[in-house]
Amino acid sequence: MTVLELKNLTKTFGTTVAAKDISFELNANEIFGFIGPNGAGKSTTLRMIIGALSPDGGEILMDGEPLSGNPHYKKNIAYVPGDVNLWGNLTGEEVIHFFMKVRGYTNIEKKKHLIAQFRLDSKKKCKTYSKGNRQKVALICAFLSEAHLLIFDEPTTGLDPLMERVFHEQLMHAKSEGRSILLSSHVLSEVEKLADRIAIIREGEIIETGPLKTLRHITRTEYIVKSTQDLSELQALPYVHHYMETDDGTHMRIDNDSIEDYLAKLSHYRPYHLETLPPRLEDIFMRYYEDRRKLS
């Protein structure tokens, strides 16, 4: 079941095209990673989804219905931006209570549990909070919500590694409850760990969409080789990249469509150790961006 669908969504600011023909679908009970560098159009797209910006073209559908014909769609969305502003003279708990009151949430035990999990000193006024603590307040409010679509825009900015882990645990718990998550981030390891599918955005355009396992064709596989013979000649081959000799062996990345040729060539060097490292999302992302720059 499709929870959210974007069809050719476009937004311009003067002569700047912030989003151009953005199209993707978010399915029920799915974590969808939306990745790209700062300025690529991620936040603009998310703000159009939540109604903070009006698109210049295209259409947004939730549960198959256009948002333009459903004035109450926002009750099914919880959104956390990358930089949260709160009411300075209210305590963290007062802000959380306010959002619970406005949206009709009554699960006090869950509120206490989340405050404890995120280690938030909820009795302090928000004006004393660091960026990370303000982020915690917003995340707690989102996970307390009963919205079936959770949208996070760079949500772990300002969080320490322990709190990042708590966020990841809560995200997976929300998914287990049947909710759908749209996660925008430039932290590629985070998206790789959590997302079922990803979309890569570059200069306002989607350039690739799909499950991570099907995107590995646009990257290279890393090999660690040990041999008694000199392997340095291999770095002259056109499909060998990032050749590097280290204490644990010789590292090199091979174009996936040339692996058969590489292994045939490597056999002449009689390796006694051969280790393969799977492509990472970071490799996919950077390879795709490098290739697109060469074409542009």
UniProtKB/TrEMBL annotation:
Q: Which Pfam families match?
A: ABC_tran
Q: Where is the ABC transporter domain?
A: 4-228
Q: Which UniProt keywords apply?
A: ATP-binding, Nucleotide-binding, Transport
Q: InterPro entries attached here?
A: AAA+_ATPase, ABC_transporter-like_ATP-bd, ABC_transporter-like_CS, ABC_Transporter_VariousFunc, P-loop_NTPase
Any one GO MF term held by the record is: ATP binding
Q: Matching SMART domains, A to Z?
A: AAA (SM00382)
Which region is the signal sequence?
A: none
UniProt name for this protein: ATP-binding cassette domain-containing protein
Q: What is the lineage of its organism?
A: Bacteria, Bacillati, Bacillota, Bacilli, Bacillales
